[in-house]
Amino acid sequence: MYSQSNCQPTLFDSHTLDNQGRINNPKLLTSNIDEALEILKDWKDLESNLDDNLPILIGSRAAKYHLPSFRETNDWDLVVTVSQTIELLSSFIIGSIGSFQMLFYKGIGVKIHGYYKSSKKNSFTFDLDLVTNGQETIKNDVGSIVELLDIPIVTSSKLIMDMCREDDDITTIPPFGLKCRVASLEVLEALKTSHIFLPANFSKNISDLHTLRKVLQYAQRIPGTRSLFEPARDQSVANMLKIRTKETEIISEIHGQNFNRNKINDDNFSPRLAVTHDELYELVKYGEQSILKTMRNDLNSRIDKSLFDNADYFTQLKCVKEEAMTIALERYIVPRSCVDSEKAFCLALSHICTASIDAWFGKFAVDNYPRLLGCDKDLTQIAKDIRNKRKLKKATDDISILSQHFPDSDSFSIVEKLIQQTQEFNPPDLILPEPDDTNVQFETFRYGLRISPPNGKGNNEQKRGLECVITVVYKMQEENENKINEAWWASVSVYPFKVESDDSESVDQSISDTDTPNGTDPTTNHPFDYDMINDDVEIVELEQKHILLIYSDHGGAGLSGFGDVESDSDMSPWVLTKPADQVASELGIPELNGDFLVRYIIAYLDPELPNGGDYPFRKAITTLEHKKEINMMPKQHLWFYLWWYATYFKGGDWDIF
């Protein structure tokens, strides 16, 4: 928590907003390369004051040119004039373009995204920033102007071209033999800084940023006892960075990225934690007193910047690490059963860098990131202690939470009994093979719940309870710095377990087969198998226990998130379900049917698809409510609505769009 008085305002200009104060979506000018060439040829006639030299190569490809040890990349990011764009697009072989979009961003300009397919195994994505004269026109078939595009005279692309037009570093764009200049390391570092606050691909971007700063010897000038900070830049580079950051904020808002540091994001913290935020500070503190608490004027305030600035450097580092460890426990380890302390710590540090309420706190973390790495506490053990403490509060806490989903007294009386029999557990980790593509990243989350048999008995006087495992897999693949593809896989499996004795339990092997296909979940709870490079999703043979499967992907033209995708065609949400009456009967509770069991399990574990993945499903359910096809009172968890509608109205197979 940080002092609001130091919040940094956003950099939007009023002309980027509509009459209701909302950010305008980018306008798709065309997805056809021939139409794009016609538009560009009209613009070329007006291109009088641009000295047409060579395109400017930016991004990771440019860094790789300067630094051969830099990571591999398959994209070409270029700053181009209209004439250069025509030359580049005209050189493409007919039928070689896998995807193509020409977009206009109000207040920024025109960008072109595409994918070039080649049989010679040198396929690549390309991202073109166009430098124009300002206002451009769109004409119809008879040559009449149908639209004016108001493009700023000064854009970051224009400044980049002006700064780099005399650079001596020149390379060739395969397979066409076209030449381009390579932006300097100073320009590349500033460009990386301009979007470092975005959550998408943060771990890769922060590594790239500090690689560039290290090569430029920025850190070597600062002793280890003093804070790292942004380098002093030439005025021209500083001006470009300011404008580029503003443009990135506009684009990221359009595509659903959250960078508004004026908004407190407490809604992601688990309401079931048995300890408060301040109590977690005490569990991760370095000394007698939490450093975070010494940085606040009172218990309810956030970190005060003046107190932070007056502390010595090592205390500042520990302050950030205490906050990161607290967030790791709150967001990842306790509620999501993440067992890797270091991974959770890095995720939390990423959150501080990209979503801190105060820009100054996040900026300190970004600049000093290399010195913050490494979790100093065993967060897994702390989480175990927290879970043990939760057992003392669970009955009271969960009754309060679940009462929202079961408001009538008859239903809630069953819930009260189930809570006494319910315990969460950590399912086995889902082990995924390493992807061949270095631009592919995965996150996995697992939730486990065990319902013991009432009074030790189930059907036919057998001691049989139920286990539930929820698995979520999130995949992110970057095509270029402004475009990523995303996919989500989720499953809910419920199966009986036998209570062999008072202190031993075993899963019913007739329900949970252990002979699984290669490359899939060894517990068979997550029945997905897929090709990590080609995104081919395949369902392994389903068992009765797989009551809910969710899949969605997003290959939109913009930054991560579903917030304002251009159309539903960018998404492919899909739901598979099975009835749950049979497995519910295993508990031997007459009032407990499949609907009730699914509603209880999902409400109790409260799963979600990360990074906006729930959006298309929420949109589908909201549409059904508006059509009065479903009644959302009392309000239930989104995933229950998906299961219920797919089961009873779609025969268990719902292809939403």
UniProtKB/TrEMBL annotation:
Q: Which residues form the DUF7276 domain?
A: 413-646
The name this protein goes by in its record: 7206_t:CDS:1
DUF7277 domain sequence ranges: 55-135
- Entry-linked InterPro entries: DUF7275 (IPR055699), DUF7276 (IPR055700), DUF7277 (IPR055701)
Q: Which residues form the DUF7275 domain?
A: 187-386
Q: Where is this region: Disordered?
A: 504-527
Q: Where is the composition biased (Low complexity)?
A: 507-525
Q: Name one Pfam family in it.
A: DUF7275
